[in-house]
């Protein structure tokens, strides 16, 4: 199956604090190999356990984090090809600052009517540029993320699924490490 990347939602923000060493240990105990984290925000590189189907990985990882570390989260799992495709399809990559251009990876693919609702509800709330992607939302937080009203909760309510965002700077670093 090859090396994969897991992106955990809401790790080391709010009350969801875990150490990366504890995370590596928990996954290793459950058969994941060559586990390493990149930045303390829930980016995990790993080789999957033998006998686990790729589609089972997100739930398996989330269950381990919940049972071993006491944090209720979700995981999005990507192959190197999927990560590269998400970066390539981002229309704002190269036109905005890497620290402001994000891919908001989603747990499901929302229909076009959900995306239209997000655009309509966000109209007049900020200067962000937004485009749909493959199980992703591409965002250029033109004026920065910290003051934006386009929050994860706002996005999730309109799209009807959870997600976790990473900026282009982080995604490029993850791509290099995943290779």
Instruction: Quickly give the structural class.
Output: alpha+beta
The count of strands amounts to 8
Q: Count of helical segments?
A: 6
What's the end-to-end separation, in Å?
A: 14 Å
Radius of gyration: 16 Å
Strand content: 15-25%
Listing every helix as H and every strand as E from the N terminus to the C terminus, the arrangement reads EHEEHEHEHEEHEH
Tell me the helix content: 25-40%
Q: If strands are numbered along the chain, what order do they take across the biggest sheet?
A: 2-3-1-4
The biggest beta sheet reads: 4 strands, antiparallel
How many structural domains?
Answer: 2
Overall, the morphology is: globular
Low confidence ranges: none
Average pLDDT rating: 93
Please characterize this protein's 3D structure.
- The chain has 2 domains: 4-73, SP0830-like domains (Alpha-Beta Plaits); 81-178, no CATH class.
- It is of the alpha+beta class.
- The chain contains 6 helices and 8 strands; from the N terminus they run βαββαβαβαββαβα.
- The longest helix has 13 residues, at 57-69.
- It is globular.
- The two termini are 14 Å apart.
Q: What's the arrangement of secondary structure elements?
A:
Elements: E1 4-8, H1 20-29, E2 33-37, E3 43-47, H2 57-69, E4 75-79, H3 80-88, E5 101-106, H4 112-122, E6 129-133, E7 136-140, H5 152-159, E8 163-167, H6 168-178
Helix pairs in contact: 1-2, 3-6, 4-5
